[in-house]
Amino acid sequence: MGRARTFDTGEVLDLALEMFWQRGFDGTSIHALCEVTNLQPGSVYAAFGSKRDLFVAAVRRYVETVSAEAVDRVNGAPSGLQGLREYFAHLIDAMVDGKRRWGCLITNSLVELSAHDPDLAGMFQLHLAHLQTSFAAALARARAEGELRPGAGPESAGMLLALVQGMNVMAKTRPGRRALQDVVDAALEGLVESPASVGTTREGRRS
């Protein structure tokens, strides 16, 4: 009969997640993981399996916490445009003052691992597709509210996803808040209806 675990699995995953996030998969050794979690290699292997298994668990933890919180900002806002603005404001805050200064774990891992681990690549792409779907839904809401320029709508979700990916790479170079905000402002201004046009449109609806 095996001994009961004497550690908190969630805490271990959070510690492993931070290390993978900062150093990448190949840059993180089992020895380093054992040091940061204060566990013996046997305990790590018994609880999680291989280093790859622990990495997969850490990625899932990231998706369920960091990524889910960000996506909730898009989906939970009163309007589609506000949801997008809140998402990018939160993203910039995290890139300047938080852990997102290391980039995005999904983006980093996709670059590092997708060429030689198609199963992991599929998991990363599924996550990105979920984010793009959230952007598309927000843009659909914004178009229905007359917040977008003619021709702008859910089809621009891929552009916003590319923007996020680019910002994730920028974050690792410490560009500063102003540079990140300028990129977001330029992208959103290309989608948003001008105030004068919005007023004209709404007057037309009331007439």
Characterize the structure shown.
This protein is mainly alpha-helical and 207 residues long. The protein contains ten helices and no strands. Helix 8 runs antiparallel to helix 9. It is elongated and about 60 Å long. The chain has helices spanning 9-23, 30-37, 41-48, 51-75, 80-97, 105-113, 118-144, 157-171, 177-189, 195-206. The longest helix is centred in the middle third of the chain and has 27 residues, at 118-144.
Give the topology, please.
Blueprint: H1 9-23, H2 30-37, H3 41-48, H4 51-75, H5 80-97, H6 105-113, H7 118-144, H8 157-171, H9 177-189, H10 195-206
Helix pairs in contact: 1-2, 1-4, 4-5, 4-7, 5-7, 5-9, 6-7, 7-8, 8-9
Key attributes of the depicted protein:
disordered C terminus, mainly alpha, 207 residues, 10 helices
- How would you name the oligomeric state of the polypeptide chains in this document? single chain
| Radius of gyration of CA atoms, rounded to a whole number | 20 Å
The number of helical segments is 10
Q: How large is the share of residues in beta strands?
A: under 5%
**Approximate shape:** elongated
Task: Give me a quick take on this structure.
The chain has 207 residues and is mainly α. The chain is built from 10 helices and no strands. 72% of the residues lie in helices and 0% in strands.
